[in-house]
Amino acid sequence: MTRHRYSTKLFYKYYLQWIRLYKENAIRPVTLDKYYLVYRQLKKIAPNVHLNELDRRAYQSILNQYAKNHEHKTTLDFHHHLKASLVDAVDDGVIERDPSRRVIIKGRRAKAKKTKFLSLYEAQLLIKQLNLGDEINWDWFILLVAKTGLRYAEALALTPEDFNFEKQEITVNKSWDYKSKYGSFQLTKNKSSNRTVMIDWRTASQFKPLIERFSPKQPIFIKPGKRVYNSTINSILKRYCRRAGIPIISIHGLRHTHASLLLYEGVSIASVAKRLGHANTVTTQQTYLHIIQELENKDNDKVMQHLSKLV
Fold this sequence. Notes:
This protein is mainly α. Helix content is 51%, strand content 5%. The protein has 13 helices and 5 strands. The strands form 2 sheets. The chain has a 3-stranded antiparallel sheet, with no helix packed on it. The longest helix has 20 residues, at 72-91. The chain is globular and about 65 Å long. The relative contact order is 0.10.
């Protein structure tokens, strides 16, 4: 009969080793940073917990300690990062059983959420504030995100060769690593993020003369040698929102605005998911659940009105 010899390694050291083995060079740097953040938190909370001591009670204690200073959703994310390593630990025979099964996720009450998106009327008021001159500026950037729903890093990476004005299309196949010192092209968030996004004729005719002077592979919104910060764009948006008397949103809020307006216009969830570059419609449904529920209520009213005519 084989006797198992389970690891006595410190939990946080095992987790660090697991990150280096399975995650480094396999995921985007920004995602990898989240794993290392969890590692630092784990080391702080449980510096003396060994794997052979890690039962369900010990793991629950770690989560409870983390939850004291974090919201429920953040605690859930913390748990998911750790659980991935523990599932592998069981498969590899490092521990006998998964201590993260059936744990209770606690956490502070979530703070009041800021407005994520604008109504059509509010979006129109915002666009009226933009200074759309003869040269590319951040106001043009804001307009393009509002019209396409591109992620911030995807829009930054756009070059003239990504525009097909005859077909009124923009090809999204890269993003911009704006968090590094000098910035550079990088892969998109996932395979589904590589997509073609249709644009209206007005936007196409506006951008065509604006980007003619750029070389085909030159980012149109990035000045050579200049670092960009999303706080810069958000500050501009904040100023324009206040001036227009509408809720203040971020540049990511413009992406939410784009998607919500499409849903309200009756565009299918599948089409919106594809346009946003979501890996599946589940992500879209979870993000815009409140809108979908509102539309379902309207659809139910239509159904009842229709059935009432069948007499």
